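Sanity check. The docking grid for beta-D-glucopyranose depends on where the pocket ends up, so I'm generating a full predicted complex first rather than guessing from homology. Inputs follow.
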Amino acid sequence: MQHSPVSWSAQWIASSIVGGPRVMAPAPFFRKNFRVEGAVSSAVLHITALGVFEAEVNGHAVSDEVFAPGWTDYNKRVYFRSYDVTGLLATGENALGAVLGDGWYSGYVGWGERNAYGERPMLLAQLEITTADGKVQRVVSDASWKTAPGPIVEADFMMGETYDARRELSGWSTAAFDDVAWQAVALPETPKIVVERSPGTPVRRQEILPGTRQEIPGVKADAPRRLFDFGQNLTGRVRLTVRGPRGAQVEIIHAEILEKGAPYTANLRKARCRDYYTLKGDGVEVWEPRFTFHGFRYAEITWKQREDVTVEKVEAVVLHSEMAKTGTFSCSHALLNQLEHNIVWGQKGNFLEVPTDCPQRDERLGWTGDAQVFVRTAAFHFDVLGFFRKWMRDVCDSQSVAGEIPPVVPQPPLGGWLPKDGGPAWADAVFICPWTLYRCYGDTEIVRDTYECMATYMDYLAKHKVKDFIRSHPEVDGWGGFGDWLALDGSTGGCEGLTPRDLIGTAMYANNAHLMAEAAELLGKTADVKKYRELHGRIVEAFRNRYVTADGLVFGNTQTGYVLGLHFGLIPPALREKSAAELVRLIKKNGTHLATGFVGTPYLLHVLEAHGHIDVAYALLEQETFPSWLFPVKNGATTIWERWDGWTPEKGFQDVGMNSFNHYAYGAVGDWMVSTVAGLEIGAPGYKKIVFKPRPGGTITWAEAKLRTPQGDVGIRWELKGGKLELDLTVPAGSEAELSLPEGWKADSRALKPGTQKITATPAWSVAAPT
Ligand code: BGC
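Predicted complex below; grid placement will be based on this.
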């Protein structure tokens, strides 16, 4: 469809029914009848809401989008959609309708109360019809529309949806519907915000998973309490098929995990996560909520004993933002394949409008730290360029006048304490995300679009957070960041780990300066290149002086301290071997276990590999005992847990205050699995150059990665056979490729051509068998 600019003459409309900070209100329906004289040659509906909407023309949905128009900083911006509705209109009488949910605008958001942005949802709609005679007719939202509440008694992301099928407004969006009982709409003040087209990707239903009935210990099979397992922790909602008497009410309880065979919901905190459906008593009834979503693997369905309800079918509808699957990884190790599966589902479950920390408890926020940790892995599995283009704009919108980048984006008022600045590794998403996306997709625009915001943040840091090139310097700021969030080396059981915050801050600051210089170079900003390279040099020097001893020890002596120092090149080259040896000593002392949190974990295996300890990297990857990536896998996880110790046999569940079973952050290891275990690495942005660098290790005997890149399909598969390494490599026509073998190996050919080729490598020490 053509995207010509829209000249709005529509007005914002709303219902006069308003909830409150803690009171939910029914979802308002809106409608308008109109006549079309002559044959319709084209018709486009431009529509948006503050809240979330679904629109219909003559009884037909105009799209299959869910939660349109998505989440932005509604104080600044909202996106509209344009739908081609030519085929839905007829000559003569027609009707246009829409129903609104509170969504992020006026529903519960995070752990806050309702009405974060406004007290009730609002609609803006403009239908532009061109008839065969060339005349243009407009139907716009204005005072002539009517509104009424319908069957959606309440609908909220955190709480759930309550639907009374007895109140259905049958035919409400058709011209024949009698709306005499409907009310006039309210005309709220026009919000002073930008209304524009979205650069992002819409949320849609992605797949349907059938529920399998499971016994609840101690509950009789015919009791009005049924448990269904979808076999997968997911984000979405339940589609219910039931029969029963009019007025019977069914409750759906959602849970990620079971405790003693029954749903465990304590970790959902204030989020009710329950839906209610009241039957109309009309034979088989199929219901799926419209304006809510939950994070769950299990659904428990209950109703009152005396009501004769039959549950015919229970399905899970998986929702996430549209993103094409681009990359796959598999190998000979079954548990690692399950880990890969969990990483992919962690992404599906948390890429809903914004990259969220988790999809289930009263949080579901665009935590900047989590997003930067995972972005590289995300960009392998799915095409997330559009998704992040939109979110990076959200990040820039959320920057304060002083230059701060908040810890969550968008940042609605949440109540309670939250720093204004996200701090080290959180706010730094503003550098890491666009740069990573540029590397993965070769897209310069995302860097260009964010550059000013990045530069402003660097100025903010220099002015407010840095002393003597040390960021989060104890003398500068009382709060130095979230630390190495959820690291296991915290002696007091705190969440921040033991790695000093100023050390983390300064390491990340050095990386920021480096990325600024890279970005400046890409965009041809020569003066900035010089400025940020110099700054980088000063930060590195400050880091060395303050944190690195003459014999290569890093202050604090934590795994993450070494990881950051080594990964960002902050340790003098002559000392790196010693530092790496100390990191290995710490890991071994810990029984070959990691102790890193959100900040250190993504780089851990890369650092071990780069400093001659790939064997230790493999040992950590294949480690099955706690704490490790495979420990949750061994314990039945189908997504990535928020915490290494979300559940342990000794302690049971972690603190209910913070224990999600669907947090993608630690899934960032997927990046190493692809780049090293399979051996598919970016050589130049957008895979214009590919480096195949298989590094067989651990117990793995074969591995493969396939990726659809902007240049075409790339693939690598290797297998160890009879002491040889057999490689299948696929190079797209538009790319250059290079083969890098483990030290001491040689290949029968290294000349890589576009297309698929087989190459055999042998260790230099093996004697070639006569052929
Ligand atoms: C979120 C995290 C987030 C953290 C910040 C938590 O509540 O779930 O994933 O990054 O807070 O410290």
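Relevant for the grid: DSSP finds 14 helices and 38 strands in the chain.
Also worth noting: The chain has a mean pLDDT of 96.
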